[in-house]
Write a structure and sequence with these properties.
By secondary structure, the chain is an alpha+beta fold. The chain has helices at residues 28-37, 89-104, 178-197, 205-213, and strands at 18-25, 45-56, 64-67, 72-78, 113-116, 120-123, 126-137, 143-151, 221-225, 231-239, 246-249, 255-258, 262-265. It folds into two domains: 5-212, BirA Bifunctional Protein, domain 2 (2-Layer Sandwich), CATH 3.30.930; 217-265, SH3 type barrels (Roll). The strands form two sheets. Strands 1, 2, 3, 4, 5, 6, 7 and 8 form an eight-stranded mixed sheet that branches. Strands 12-11-10-9-13 form a five-stranded antiparallel sheet. The protein is globular and about 55 Å long.
């Protein structure tokens, strides 16, 4: 744990966050979850690595989530004071944080930045980032939230799916400092979770509205894989403003809400 990816130091991190840095690790999220469960951390801590060899994502394409040096592979562990029932909303908050960083810190036009439900970020039609929200319980009984975040800065992996490709920020035209971008992104997330803890559940509607405004496939016909055997199709008409569920208008006119699944464009005949 002697590495300092992106040359980050403790002074770069916002208070009260601390950091654990690695040359190479299987999964930053697995490491964060294990440290919480072992009672080794009790304050906001990020886990950052140069290379990740066995990360995990969601959806049918989420097998091994590797990340090479130069790309961002980080997991944030903290102990929100907001009610646990509200924590899933932070997945949408994280998407918005990334979208804002891509626009304001990287200079990509907002019109090129899209959020794919529930946890991917696209620029110019290609996936540049993925998110994974998990929870863990410390020996004291205190619950922690762990956000895994991967961002393709220097290189893009080959994805095991045919409906879209991965892109990296360099190929898309970002010529700025990777270190500067990572530091700003860390500060953005720390600020966002602090603000979230101060917001009541009633204030989450604007989060879902802001996320929906940048949604990929909005008003298009999509296919949602619910599990290995079940797939449904319908028009993606937006998010439920109370839960963040994906809302589908089925071909028979029925409205259906989906809380989890893998989304892709419906095949056209």
């Amino acid at each position: 744990m002697t590495a300092h990816p992106f040359l980050l130091e403790a002074a770069d991190l916002p208070s009260p966050w601390s950091g654990r840095f690695y040359d190479q690790i299987g999964s930053t999220s697995d490491e964060a979850l294990a440290k919480v469960q072992a009672g080794e951390i009790d304050a906001p801590t990020l886990f950052l690595t140069d290379e990740q060899t066995a990360g995990r994502g969601r959806g049918r394409s989420a097998g091994s989530w590797t990340s090479t040096a130069g790309n961002l592979a980080v997991s944030f562990a903290h102990f929100p004071t907001a009610p646990v029932r509200d924590w899933p909303v932070l997945s949408y908050v994280a998407g918005l944080v990334l979208a804002r960083a891509l626009e304001e810190d990287c200079g990509f036009p907002a019109s090129q930045i899209r959020l794919k439900w529930p946890n991917d970020v696209f620029v110019a039609g290609g996936k540049v980032a993925g998110l994974l929200l998990e929870t863990a319980t410390a020996p004291s009984g205190q619950q922690a939230l762990v956000l895994g975040m991967g961002l393709n800065i220097e290189a893009a992996p080959t994805l095991d799916r045919s409906d879209y490709v991965a892109r990296d920020l360099r190929a898309l035209g970002y010529g700025g400092s990777a270190r500067g971008l990572v530091v700003k992104l860390i500060h953005r997330w720390a600020e966002a979770v602090h603000r979230f803890d101060l917001t009541s559940s009633a204030g989450h509607q604007h989060i879902f509205r802001d996320w929906q405004a940048q949604a990929l496939y909005l008003n298009e016909e999509i296919s949602v894989r619910l599990d290995q055997e079940t797939r449904i199709e319908g028009q993606f008409i937006g998010l439920d403003e109370t839960t963040g569920a994906l809302k589908l208008r089925m071909k028979n006119g029925e409205l259906r809400s989906v809380m989890a699944g893998d989304v892709m464009l419906a095949e056209t005949s």
